[in-house]
């Protein structure tokens, strides 16, 4: 009846259609209370698209607190609420005036209002997207609910960088809870009390497209995206199957959930994190979470702890109590630090935030780590990585502990406790523990033992399971929650870290070290010999991202490419298992003091390497640019069969490192000039490096070595002294010498003198001409690798080097000679013209220090 009176007296364009109100706009003055619209369950605005959304004064769960909400009608999802932290009673009112919206309780006390507006309100409008907008008289927006998101975004809404979603306390209590989804300039991060527990970029289902600064997050009909450049560039994307409508919500339990709707049926299509144990409070404070295969996580208490109550709101230490963060500032608890102790959490423990946080101390021992925590009252626990000496402090609050399914890390967790705490120290966590009957204390040592036995058994079973997975070649020994969503076809064999430790005798025999880490020799149980590369120069990286690349590398099979046998991705460890090459790398054979490589062998190596590169560039589904072709990465097998190693690894670099990668990958002496200019890196970059390797095969020495050219002078009548490439000190930049000799047709002078003439001028000419074509400064003038193979095989005619694109070698040669002289004078062992060239990813040998293909673009353009 009241509804009827109200509507007729104000004469809105609202109309009754079988008891429903159909209007998407109202004008001031307007007042609404729950009772006025009780027939519509408090709803007084409906969006035009058949009422997909409504605005209502609503009490979720039928309780006594009322909120002004925008609701997705079909699913009953509250997509926005005005007075989330200040609910009103059933008699409270919403007022729309020319000054905006205000919400007051029945006694007239103001609970919420819109901020001051720049002009008078003409209308309140609910859009078809679900956006509640205050409009001025020109239909200009004065205020929009989309700009003040609560825990949800919908299609059409943008969550800008710096903004966040905040969870509700529970489904019915919309007060701001403890979980946040924050948009940073590079990611979307879930946090609990400042501790991160999930990142979009690290989720298995998300892909990082670009390194731009994020401007906002949005969902549309085909997925969730982090956008840059005003929406024209995607930074991170997660594709979802097309759907007309979807809602993304940070729910009260800390899950970020996306649901799609076709008609009225909603379907959950995404949840992050997928592993239930990564939810901060899944088992309460210090509760121990074990990821179960099917029924979700199970909770217990770590040894030495017991449950606060049967409802598992967490665990407290037995026989001691937990400090409050910064308790010492509270009255009456001036605790002396000798009362503090650390309760160890047993083995194989992890904490959700550790993957996302930085250690507070590096390379320290455990006592230093504990001292740090003792001296900082906000520190409540530490995790200590025994292998690296990294010390992680957990501050301000503690969540659940994760029982790590893989014993990959030497992580030791310690909870700070107060021993013999004075009874006047109020302890919020353990207040209920006093109710524990004495009998429990008597039984504790026994139950502790029992718990250990049970946990031990569980651990043993888990090990068996994960071993079986390995035998089956399954894709995962991750936390079991990931198992289903994590299968990547083509993934090579997955090894357990322990297996590789056994195989390599604890990484005893190091056989090399490359840009990505050290390589160790190992023997697998089937007696096959392998080379195990322990990757150290990668950041913390999503396992799926890693495995996707591994699947690509592992699926590449070519006789001239080193085969990837398998890999290991456990925790922070990344290892690659390759077939072992019994004759080592080309640099050792070619530049070493062993038996000299015969010409035919050199030619076979050149041809094999060219075929391997041609396959990487054109033979695979996905073009792979090696980026670091050099003798160290060309491995030799029986009969000097060449096999290229380290291909595909450049994609494993983390985004932070990939900017480094674009300037720094590759090795001085083999780097093409375009690395230094802004031109694109392409497969022609590998062609350049291959040309440099060819020249080294011809001469038997490093292009950049400072060895004098005396042998060449012995072989020639005129002597190298006339050559523009030689300085007075007899230092020669070999690529320039090759150009000079090519112009003069004196190829024999370029051949390795150790061959003592067991090669013809025609044979040398072939390699030198191919090499010079490969090192053209202009990438498009370099042949592709398929043509290089053709020229070497003789099936296509030899190319003619173009001197105009080789003149840069003269400049390199001059700098090379100058630097060599300075080096001699100063006795410097590593002269670098360009100190910003951080060489961390390259392998240098003493002979390759002075090398000037690594030069800035201005310096290159100088002499032209
Ligand atoms: C709205 O209410 C205010 C007082 O609250 C009054 O001054 C104003 O005239 C009213 N406007 C309309 C359009 O009724
Ligand atoms: C509204 O519903 C009718 C019938 O159910 C349908 O034909 C129409 O397309 C709908 N309109 C919108 C905007 O959803
Ligand atoms: C504002 O929008 C409404 C509905 O779309 C329209 O009827 C009205 O003419 C518009 N007013 C102005 C000033 O554009
Ligand atoms: C809702 O949660 C807040 C914060 O935890 C609490 O203060 C308030 O009492 C709760 N309200 C209800 C009705 O439970
Ligand atoms: C969603 O956004 C992405 C990224 O801009 C775009 O490629 C895609 O076409 C959009 N989907 C729809 C249905 O508009
Ligand atoms: C961003 O794009 C919108 C349309 O998508 C356009 O109206 C706006 O002017 C653009 N802003 C900038 C700064 O380019
Ligand atoms: C545990 O929770 C249930 C409902 O979830 C409640 O009925 C029960 O009283 C609780 N028990 C304790 C000991 O808190
Ligand atoms: C600490 O004690 C002083 C007086 O003893 C009191 O005024 C103050 O409010 C107390 N502070 C706290 C945080 O309890
Ligand atoms: C701390 O307590 C120990 C004994 O519990 C005592 O010997 C020591 O003097 C105390 N230190 C301080 C600073 O109160
Ligand atoms: C830990 O390191 C500190 C400082 O480096 C040293 O003083 C202390 O003796 C070490 N403690 C142990 C147990 O090794
Ligand atoms: C930590 O590492 C050291 C050697 O680095 C070893 O002796 C010690 O047993 C390890 N501690 C634990 C608890 O694993």
TrEMBL record:
Domain Bulb-type lectin: 29-147
E.C. code: 2.7.11.1
Endpoints of the signal sequence: 1-19
Keyword Disulfide bond: yes
Cited Gene3D superfamilies: 2.90.10.30, Phosphorylase Kinase, domain 1, Transferase(Phosphotransferase) domain 1
Region (Disordered): 705-727
Residue ranges with Polar residues bias: 705-715
Chief localization: membrane
Top-level lineage group: Eukaryota
Residue ranges of the TM segments: 436-460
EC class: transferase
Compartment annotation: Membrane
Membrane topology summary: Single-pass membrane protein
Protein kinase domain span: 505-803
Binding sites annotated in the UniProt record for ATP: 534
UniProt KW keywords: ATP-binding, Disulfide bond, EGF-like domain, Glycoprotein, Kinase, Membrane, Nucleotide-binding, Receptor, Serine/threonine-protein kinase, Signal, Transferase, Transmembrane, Transmembrane helix
Catalysed reaction, written as an equation: L-seryl-[protein] + ATP = O-phospho-L-seryl-[protein] + ADP + H(+); L-threonyl-[protein] + ATP = O-phospho-L-threonyl-[protein] + ADP + H(+)
Protein family: Belongs to the protein kinase superfamily. Ser/Thr protein kinase family.
UniProt protein name: Receptor-like serine/threonine-protein kinase
Organism: Hevea brasiliensis
């Amino acid at each position: 009846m009241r509804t009827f009176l109200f509507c007729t007296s104000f004469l809105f364009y609202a109309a009754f259609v079988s008891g429903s109100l159909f209007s998407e706009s109202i004008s001031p003055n307007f007042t609404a209370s729950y009772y006025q619209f009780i027939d519509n369950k408090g709803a007084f605005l409906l969006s035009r698209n058949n009422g997909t959304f409504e605005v209502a004064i609503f009490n979720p769960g039928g309780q006594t607190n009322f909120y002004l909400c925008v609701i997705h009608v079909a699913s009953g999802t509250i997509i926005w609420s005005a007075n989330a932290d200040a609910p009103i009673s059933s008699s409270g009112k919403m007022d729309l005036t020319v000054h905006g919206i205000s919400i007051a309780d029945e006694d007239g006390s103001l609970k919420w209002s819109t901020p001051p507006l720049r002009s008078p309100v003409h209308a309140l409008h609910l859009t078809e997207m679900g956006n509640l907008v205050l409009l001025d008289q020109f239909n200009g927006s004065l205020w929009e609910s989309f700009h003040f998101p609560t825990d949800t975004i919908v299609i059409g809404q943008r969550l800008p960088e710096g903004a966040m979603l905040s969870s509700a306390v529970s489904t019915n209590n919309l007060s701001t809870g403890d979980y946040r989804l924050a948009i940073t300039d590079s990611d979307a991060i879930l946090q609990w009390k400042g501790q991160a527990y999930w990142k979009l970029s690290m989720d298995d289902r998300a892909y990082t497209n670009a390194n731009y600064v994020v401007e906002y997050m949005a969902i549309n009909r085909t997925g969730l995206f982090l956008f840059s450049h005003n929406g024209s560039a995607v930074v991170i994307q997660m594709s979802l199957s097309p759907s007309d409508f979807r809602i993304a919500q940070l729910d009260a339990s800390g899950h970020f959930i996306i649901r799609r709707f076709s008609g009225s049926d909603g379907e959950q299509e995404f949840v992050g994190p997928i592993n239930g144990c990564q939810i901060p409070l899944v088992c309460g404070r210090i509760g121990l979470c074990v990821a179960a295969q099917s029924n979700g996580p199970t909770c217990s208490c770590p040894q030495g702890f017991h449950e606060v109550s049967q409802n598992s709101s967490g665990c407290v230490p037995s026989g001691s109590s937990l400090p409050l963060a910064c308790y010492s500032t509270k009255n009456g608890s001036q605790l002396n630090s000798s009362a503090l102790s650390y309760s160890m959490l047993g083995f194989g423990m992890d904490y959700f935030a550790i993957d996302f946080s930085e250690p507070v101390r590096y390379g320290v021992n455990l006592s230093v780590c504990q001292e740090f925590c003792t001296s900082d009252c906000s520190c409540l626990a530490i995790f200590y990585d025994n292998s690296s000496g990294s010390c992680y402090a957990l501050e301000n609050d503690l969540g659940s502990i994760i029982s790590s399914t893989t014993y990959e890390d030497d992580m030791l967790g310690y909870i700070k406790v107060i021993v013999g705490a004075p009874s006047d120290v109020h302890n919020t966590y353990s207040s209920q523990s006093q109710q524990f009957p004495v009998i429990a204390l008597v039984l504790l040592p026994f139950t502790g033992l029992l718990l250990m036995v049970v946990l031990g058994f569980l651990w043993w079973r888990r090990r068996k399971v994960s071993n079986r997975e390995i035998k089956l070649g399954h894709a995962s020994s991750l936390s079991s929650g990931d198992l289903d969503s994590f299968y990547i076809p083509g993934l090579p064999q997955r090894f357990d870290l322990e297996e590789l430790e056994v195989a390599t005798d604890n990484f005893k025999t190091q056989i090399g070290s490359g840009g990505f880490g050290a390589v160790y020799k190992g023997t697998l149980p089937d007696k096959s010999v392998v080379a195990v590369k322990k990757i150290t120069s990668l950041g913390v990286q999503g396992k799926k991202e890693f495995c996707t690349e591994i699947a690509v590398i592992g699926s590449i099979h070519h006789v001239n490419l080193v085969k990837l046998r398998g890999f290991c991705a456990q925790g922070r460890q990344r290892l690659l298992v390759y077939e072992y090459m019994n004759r080592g790398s080309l640099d050792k054979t070619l530049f070493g003091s062993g038996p000299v490589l015969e010409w035919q062998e050199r030619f076979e190596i050149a041809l094999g390497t060219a075929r391997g590169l041609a396959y990487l560039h054109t033979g695979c589904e996905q073009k792979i640019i090696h980026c670091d072709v050099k003798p160290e990465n060309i491995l030799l097998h029986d009969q000097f069969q060449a096999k290229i190693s380290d291909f595909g690894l450049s994609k494993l670099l983390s985004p932070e490192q990939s900017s480094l990668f674009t300037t720094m990958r590759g090795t001085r002496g083999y780097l093409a000039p375009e690395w230094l200019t802004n031109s694109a890196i392409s497969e022609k970059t590998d062609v350049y490096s291959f040309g440099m390797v060819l020249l080294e095969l011809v001469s038997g020495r490093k292009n950049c070595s400072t060895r004098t050219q005396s042998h060449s002078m012995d072989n020639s009548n005129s002597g190298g002294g006339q050559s523009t490439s030689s300085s007075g000190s007899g230092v020669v930049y070999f690529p320039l010498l090759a150009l000079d000799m090519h112009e003069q047709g004196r190829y024999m002078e370029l051949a390795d003198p150790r061959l003592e003439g067991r090669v013809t001028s025609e044979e040398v000419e072939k390699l030198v001409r191919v090499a010079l074509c490969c090192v053209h400064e202009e990438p498009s003038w370099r042949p592709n690798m398929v043509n290089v193979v053709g020229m070497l095989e003789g099936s296509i005619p030899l190319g003619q080097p173009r001197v105009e694109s080789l003149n840069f070698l003269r400049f390199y040669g001059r700098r090379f000679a100058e630097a060599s002289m300075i080096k001699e004078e100063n006795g410097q062992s590593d002269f670098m013209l360009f100190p910003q060239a951080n060489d961390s990813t390259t392998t240098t040998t003493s002979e390759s220090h002075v090398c000037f293909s690594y030069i800035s673009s201005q310096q290159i353009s100088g002499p032209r």
